[in-house]
Fold each of these.
Amino acid sequence: MMNTTAALSAEATLTTSFQDADPMGIVYHGNYFRYFEEARRVLMGKLNYSYREMQDSGYQWPVIDAQVKYVKAIPFNHEIRVIATLVEWENRLRVNYVIVDAASGEQMTKAHTVQVAVGIDDEMRLASPRVFTEKVEALIAHAQ
């Protein structure tokens, strides 16, 4: 049996590119958001709620808050694992991220993003739509 945290987590393994680095060969801080996005994309796919499915259900989910703690510099041409974990979903979508060195497992970055449901034709929702929460609940039930 899978626990809830594992059920609501997904990861992406990436190798950082030269184009992601600053002149010192270290990944530029703004590029971390692309890594978070890739892990979040995998997570939403696991929930059967991809960005196309979000749009088809009548909602957009803009990021309204993001926080990052840069623990250790990541050089270019370095293999990392980005783990995304859904920790809130009833009123907003909060995803926590951890970037670890793929070889050693050493933590390099931690972060989170917050997204809210916005109806494509109207305004922000104060609670997540049932079309999304039902998908989360189904995944949790399947994991237990």
Note: Helices lie at 4-7, 32-46, 51-56, 130-143.
Amino acid sequence: MSRHTTFVAVGDSFTEGMSDDLPDGTCRGWADLVAARLAEDTAGFRYANLAVRGKLVGQIVDEQVGLAAAMRPDLVSFAGGMNDVMRPGCDIDLVLRRVTEAADRLAEASGRLLLFRVIDPTRRMRGAARLLPRITRLLDAVDAAAERHDAVVVDLFSARVFDSPALWAEDRIHLNAEGHRRTAEAVLCALGLEPEFEWDAPVPPPPPLPWRERAKAELRWARTHALPWIGRRLTGRSSGDGRAPKRPELTPVRP
């Protein structure tokens, strides 16, 4: 494994670390965990996280990729496109062009590019099977970019462990702390570090709830998460509107 001294993370809520909440109200996430582990072996290690929740891939390219490239990092991660894929009016051809543009620009400006094969939502979310043709094309674009740039690829799509609701927050869209912890370990293993645990080990299923409790949980989820999400889509708003990156510059990390 080559030693990295700088790491820049680019993307949306997945990379920002949404739903892995710290006591002070900030979010941590897999990228922070990866940075902390890399810093253990490298004096003066620095890390930036430009990701902002809710961003579409075009916004990621326009707002983050240039900044990340200018930092000339040893390691840069890119994950994006799923917010686009989940929208009914998705122009998948445009999405794939922007994904390819991001990968090409970041690879040119960095020592190593890190990409993701996105988590498969089709076995976990009702109605998600209709997204599979778009997701398959997104995976193909990531695979092509990885081959072109000899990138590190973290294959989360094939990991059945992410089918478990135990790895997801209440909104069912974002990973929880355990989901981010497992993703971080998957990244570190892909980068060649010695594994600390089996990140894709199955999660024991939770005990089944009585039907009345399940119905209450569904109603609470729809009221608290699904309806606001639909409302933002209909009005063109995003959960990241007006939100700045949590770590906009390369700064030291305390291991």
Note: The helical segments are 13-16, 30-40, 57-70, 82-85, 92-109, 132-149, 177-190, 211-235.
Amino acid sequence: MGARNKDYYSLLINVATVHIDDLARAMVFPREKGDFIVPQTHFVAETEGAKLPGLSSKKLLDFGFKFNYGAEGMYDVAIKCCREKGFL
């Protein structure tokens, strides 16, 4: 993304990301704890601009789940993979 695409930068900071390993663990975690996490439904009020859903890992974290990967680690691996595949 070059400087001419700055209009898209605000969308990037609103993208929910998770490492695939953490995602897989998060899907199994509630079953291992003997409980289920019920997702909440979010309604977006009438506002101008991009309407992005509100996502939260609060319930998962409240149950004691710990993420192994942060944003920096995810992007490092993604960039390395893209370089290896010749995309960058």
Note: The chain has one domain: 3-44+55-84.
